[in-house]
């Protein structure tokens, strides 16, 4: 999805808005529509040709209200447009598709293993991976940040879950296929076929992982042992949550990286402002998360008749919260279409809000800080080496190709050359 200033005017025609169409995010630009919707139609309804309908909210306040208030808006029936209208089979079995108190029983134990404190010890390992990831930059050739970055989350989430490195490229492909089944790069069959095939393979893979394990000191082992409110999780619950954890990490983090680098390229005065200062890098990462908003939407169903921005919402209606729009809301962000590495405050909702606030946010932040800490040490400036290709998905705002070159700082090429010695480069996304 395009990330910068809207390419159209705010007087866009709102009668024909199609936010469901994945092509809008691949070759179009939702930003002028969102801008107009925030202004003129804060709750906008759309009916698909097959009769399924949903209401969209685009203002920061409404997006927060929908995501936060589980008493008014339930997650149990599913949270993604891809399953609009059919109840999610993972309802009440997977954190993301449940409400308190069922949600709380699964979530509380996981909060502790995925906290900053628990993850700090992993930072040196992640830094090693980051140098292997960045090593190809030393050659000075165009480097596809989207392809290389796609494999990065496996190196921290896959490692945390104890999944064998040989499986990482295929798991990366399957998780992307599960969220972008219409993208020609990942969709093997007709839309639904790809989604079903990806789900089937991932569930089967995790069932095998869970059943094959004895006592293991990794996240899969933790899910097997943990006390979920007085009982252990059942096999289907473990499998659904493994799927959700891996998907949550794989389909978002690479696009946060790409979006941040895109910001550095489009606003060339910003990257030099980091000046090697870790605190500034931390702020820049938050701005990169706002800018990229890799999770583009989450959905809920209204539990009872209610209202949003003064507009009535009917019981049972699907309501889609567009995070990418909320993160450009001029009511909350000064100069929202400016990428500002020192933005403060930055009340972005890239990780959501409320009880479902991303459980992987500390892990993502540790990984992004490791990555951009290294980048700032090694890279003087990024240059585009070709136009980015945007992912065809209404859920993930991201790129499937983003060629760049990097001007390196003195001595960086030697550091990168030693990074791969012994370990070799990171596995990349397999070409289809
Ligand atoms: C930049 C990276 C990431 C972004 C932008 C992101 C975004 C989000 C958002 C917006 C939600 C809220 C969903 C909702 O309200 O329904 C969420 C939830 C979730 N995320 Fe992330 N995420 C990221 C990284 C990760 C990582 C690294 C993991 C795995 C370790 C992960 C696993 C999950 C899970 C399991 C949930 C559901 C939590 C719950 O329902 O309580 N995410 N994520």
TrEMBL record:
- Molecular function terms, GO-annotated: cholest-4-en-3-one 26-monooxygenase activity; heme binding; iron ion binding; steroid hydroxylase activity
Name of the protein in question: Cytochrome P450
GO annotation (BP), single: cholesterol catabolic process
Keyword annotations from UniProtKB, A to Z: Heme, Iron, Metal-binding, Monooxygenase, Oxidoreductase
Q: Which PANTHER family match?
A: BIOTIN BIOSYNTHESIS CYTOCHROME P450 (PTHR46696:SF4), P450, PUTATIVE (EUROFUNG)-RELATED (PTHR46696)
Q: Which InterPro entries match?
A: Cyt_P450 (IPR001128), Cyt_P450_B (IPR002397), Cyt_P450_CS (IPR017972), Cyt_P450_sf (IPR036396)
Q: Which CDD domains match?
A: CYP142-like (cd11033)
Pfam families, per the entry: p450
Concerning its family, UniProt says:
Belongs to the cytochrome P450 family.
